[in-house]
Specification:
- This protein is an all-alpha fold.
- It has a single domain, classed as Na+/H+ antiporter like fold.
- 81% of the residues lie in helices and 0% in strands.
- The protein is built from 13 helices and no strands.
- α3 runs parallel beside α6.
- The chain is globular and about 60 Å long.
Length: 291
């Protein structure tokens, strides 16, 4: 469904990021970069640890090698709007989450080709070259993340407090509803009938679930190891647990042209919003050392 992926999804993401921005101030972002340890830990976890965990988990797993490459592609595409939304709903460090999403969106221009080509070489002896457009990536991040967030922050800054207060409560319901509605359209009404593919390949969900859970907890404990705050710990855990599945689908389907690799990303995207939200809630509620 062309309109879902090319039009509705970017609009939905922009709306979500605007809603998130309403809850932020520019000083929140200043604090992130003035104390850079959390963002360094988060980027290291996403850009280095995620692919390493994926390789270690899937190398000896008894599935076709083409699916192994699919998991590496997922691990190579960290971050996304869904992680910003969950962090917002969990009242985590939203400015940190948004900053990580923006920064890794550019870093993956270099890391995705590296990890994907390595996976193709290791598992399929394939030397396919992967190229991502800096201009297209910059434009997408600018239009769907940066500008909407800035617009939201400006709304928060220059409108009356009563106005933004009235917006915040319904937005906590509207924002996830927007994201889930667009995802449902893509999943069940898309031209490739992804829901049928999911049902016919249910066994692939096992390594994907394990990967999701492992990365969430490793992200949390790596952050705790560096003595970050509890809110930083579960924010980084969310960032580790949710990858940019839409980008992974694009790489597998458009750049490599392999529907089996694409299927791994489709299956992963079908449950990680819910599983990451659940485990983030568990980490927030039950693993706070101050309680």
């Amino acid at each position: 469904m062309l309109y879902t992926s090319d039009i509705l999804m970017p609009i939905a993401i922009a709306i979500i990021m605007y809603g998130i921005g309403i809850n932020l101030k520019f000083k929140d972002f200043g604090r992130v970069f003035y104390y850079p340890k959390p963002i360094i830990v988060g980027l290291f976890g996403q850009l280095v640890l995620l692919p390493l965990i994926a390789f270690a988990l899937i190398y000896y797993w008894n599935i076709d090698n083409v699916y192994k490459v699919g998991l590496i592609i997922i691990a190579s595409a960290p971050g996304g709007t869904a992680s910003n939304l969950i962090t917002h709903l969990m009242k985590g460090r939203v400015a940190l989450s948004v900053s990580l999403t923006s920064l890794n969106s550019f870093a993956i221009l270099f890391t995705i080709p590296l990890y994907t080509q390595l996976a193709l070489s290791v598992f399929l002896q394939d030397n396919t070259e992967i190229n991502l457009s800096f201009y297209e990536t910059f434009t997408k991040v600018l239009l769907t993340v940066l500008i909407p967030v800035i617009a939201g922050v400006l709304t928060n800054r220059y409108t009356k407090k009563e106005f933004t207060d009235k917006l915040r409560k319904p937005l906590r319901i509207i924002l996830p509803a927007v994201l889930l509605s667009v995802f449902a359209m893509a999943m069940f009404f898309g031209e490739d009938n992804q829901s049928l593919k999911f049902l016919n390949n249910f066994e692939l969900i096992i390594p994907l679930i394990i990967f999701n859970i492992i990365t969430i907890f490793i992200g949390f404990y790596i952050s705790r190891l560096f003595k970050n705050s509890h809110s930083t710990n579960f924010t980084i855990a969310i960032e580790m647990g949710l990858q940019n599945s839409a980008l992974a689908i694009y790489i597998a389907s458009s750049l490599i042209g392999n529907s089996q690799m694409e299927l791994m990303a489709v299956i992963y995207s079908s449950f990680t919003f819910f599983s990451t939200a659940f485990f983030a809630w568990v980490l927030k509620k039950y693993l706070n050392p101050k309680e």
